[in-house]
Amino acid sequence: MNQSAAKSLGRSIPPFRADQVGSLLRTAAIKTAREQRAAGSLSAEQLREIENEEIRRIVDKQKEVGLQAVTDGEFRRAWWHFDFLENLDGVEGYEAESGIQFHGVQSKAHSIKVTGKVDFSNHPMLEDYKFLHGLAGSHTAKMTIPSPNMLYYRGKIDTPLYEDKEAFFQDLTQAYKKAIRAFYDAGCRYLQLDDTSWAAFFSEESRDKLRAQGKDPQQVLELSAKMINEAIADRPADLAITMHICRGNFRSTWTGSGGYDAAAETIFGGLNLDGLFLEFDDERSGGFEPLRYVNRPDLQVVLGLITSKFGELENPDAIKRRIDEASRYVGLEQLCLSPQCGFASTEEGNLVAEEQQWAKLRHVVEIAADVWK
């Protein structure tokens, strides 16, 4: 589908009727270059030039398949979250004892810790965004960063500065306010916060884990919403901020299960975001009933009905029926379509071929064109 067709789907501002979460499979050239860089046979400048060339290629490909929002595929990152967080002031990466446990597989052993006052200044991803922005042209450059909740949930506090957790929350939300303004000043008008922490509320088992840590799930839920809302409170009116909620995405597997029910009132009625990207690609995500808590006509709900975990294309009629089902709770004009997650939340990527990835994204565009004629 060409660009004029993609623009005809009824939304000129993000999120778009046919959209994407952000990460893309690392190409062979990227993987080889990163290995050479790690071995010391490639300079940082040489690696960046290879990244630049591959990002140019995949931006052109995103335009070709008909997407209005283009990303850099997170090609300069190893992780969807750690690379951003450990470049905040006061945060460091370190090699952990073990990786993150997914269903049947474990990630590399890496984590982050807070060692000083959290702040945002001179972050390298500002230059990454500027490069993408320069390639976008008439398309919209989409920047993805982890939500502030991810530092709280994934980061170990290793400084006496934050014995008072309230001081940590204040510094963290202020750092995000600065980040949002900095990306805006760099030209960004479409920013996405990625957040896996909400899965802690989706099943009784995961809520029991919070209780075992001495935490009240409802209080933690309210804190999660407060951090998001405070971080985005002063955003410019023409900056769209969305959030992607995920139950884990690594090598085509996952970490969490359960529908949105237990957190639905907070997620759908209590977050001051412009859009929500939601996993709905299999039974682990539950039904659409929690969407009844959407209480704003300006909140766009992006249905992640196309899976990024395997390459086989979904039956388009089945996807259209599911969109119709969701529209019983939220009007069709408030719905959009995307894959349920990125294709490579980490540099390893899902077990999908690159051509299957592009076919999936083209599938999103073509189905959306049929639904929102």
Question: What do these coordinates show?
Answer:
It is a single chain. The protein is of the alpha/beta class and 373 residues long. It has one domain: Alpha-Beta Barrel (TIM Barrel). Helices cover 38% and strands 16% of the residues. The protein has a six-stranded parallel sheet with strand order 7-9-10-11-12-13. A three-stranded mixed sheet has the order 2-5-8. The chain starts with a helix and ends with a helix. The model is unreliable at 1-6 (pLDDT under 50).
Topology summary:
Elements: H1 3-6, H2 28-39, H3 44-65, E1 69-70, H4 82-85, E2 89-94, E3 101-102, E4 105-106, E5 111-119, H5 125-136, E6 140-141, E7 143-146, H6 149-154, E8 155-157, H7 165-185, E9 190-195, H8 204-212, H9 217-232, E10 240-245, H10 264-269, E11 275-279, E12 300-306, H11 316-326, E13 335-339, H12 354-371
Parallel strand pairs: 1-6, 5-8, 7-9, 9-10, 10-11, 11-12, 12-13
Antiparallel strand pairs: 2-5, 3-4
Helix pairs in contact: 2-3, 3-5, 7-9
GO molecular function: 5-methyltetrahydropteroyltriglutamate-homocysteine S-methyltransferase activity; zinc ion binding
EC number: 2.1.1.14
InterPro entries: Met_Synth_C/arc, UROD/MetE-like_sf
